[in-house]
Structure formats: structure tokens, C-alpha cells
């Protein structure tokens, strides 16, 4: 399970952060930007689906959004409608490990926007956020 792209998308579907792993060419950046943009429809569809059981809790982890030819796209949406998207290669994935990675990225995002120098709704330019995302992605088993 190798993460090839991580993205944070704002509540108004504006990209706040997008990084490819390892840092790729402009063409790869554009490809993953397109994939992440396409995932927004899948996220909205999953969120709009009614709960199956009356006692079922809405989970921030959305799971697999859709597969592509060479990768799988997973999503997470917090209570503020900020979305985190991870694009993984087609290797074996473990939901529990992905769920933990999404939660860690959500905490890193919350810390980044708590910075008084960050302007809400603007792309995240924090080097510490980028380093933390790289650390989370690097800790996932290959």
C-alpha cells in the first residue's frame, strides 16, 4: 500500500493542499489534481446516501471512493466538510491503517489551520504540515 498522492480539499471544494509521492512532474501533479477533483463527486454521493440502520453512526472515514486503472482513491470528510483524499497504488490496502492515517492527517490539518498566520480557506503553505503529511504517508506499510 503506497500513497502516491495526498490532498486536502476545503468545504467549498477548493484545493488546500496537494502533494504527490515522490514529488512528481507537472504532468503527474495535473493527473492527480484531476483524480482528486473527480473524487469530490464520489464523496458527495457517499455522504448523501442514507444510513442503512437506525443506530448506524456517520463515520468520517468514507473508504474506497473509486478505483482507476492504476490506483485506488480513498476519502475522509470531517464535520466542517473539509475533505482529505489519499490516492494509493493498486497494492493490498488495510482499512484500519488507512483510517488511522486519515485521523492523523485530520489532526495535522487542524493544527495547521490553528496557526494565527494561516488565512482560512487559503492553501496550506506550512512546512510543518507538509513534513507531518510526509511522515504519516511514510509510516504506512508498503
From TrEMBL:
It holds the Pfam family Sedlin_N. GO terms for biological process: endoplasmic reticulum to Golgi vesicle-mediated transport. It comes from the Eukaryota. One of its GO terms (cellular component) is cytoplasm. PANTHER family: TRAFFICKING PROTEIN PARTICLE COMPLEX SUBUNIT 2 (PTHR12403). Belongs to the TRAPP small subunits family. Sedlin subfamily. This is Trafficking protein particle complex subunit 2-like protein. It comes from Tetraselmis sp. GSL018.
Amino acid at each position: 500500500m503506497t500513497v502516491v498522492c495526498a490532498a486536502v480539499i476545503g468545504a467549498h471544494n477548493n484545493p488546500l493542499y496537494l502533494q504527490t509521492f515522490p514529488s512528481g512532474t507537472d504532468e503527474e501533479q495535473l493527473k492527480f489534481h484531476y483524480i482528486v477533483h473527480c473524487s469530490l463527486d464520489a464523496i458527495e454521493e457517499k455522504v448523501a446516501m442514507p444510513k442503512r440502520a437506525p443506530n448506524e453512526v456517520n463515520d468520517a472515514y468514507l473508504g474506497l471512493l473509486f478505483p482507476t486503472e492504476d490506483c485506488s482513491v480513498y476519502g475522509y470528510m470531517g464535520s466542517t466538510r473539509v475533505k482529505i483524499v489519499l490516492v494509493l497504488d493498486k497494492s493490498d490496502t488495510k482499512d484500519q491503517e488507512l483510517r488511522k492515517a486519515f485521523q492523523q492527517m485530520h489532526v495535522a490539518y487542524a493544527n495547521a489551520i490553528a496557526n494565527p498566520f494561516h488565512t482560512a480557506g487559503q492553501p496550506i503553505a506550512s512546512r510543518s504540515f507538509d513534513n507531518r503529511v510526509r511522515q504519516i504517508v511514510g509510516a504506512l506499510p508498503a
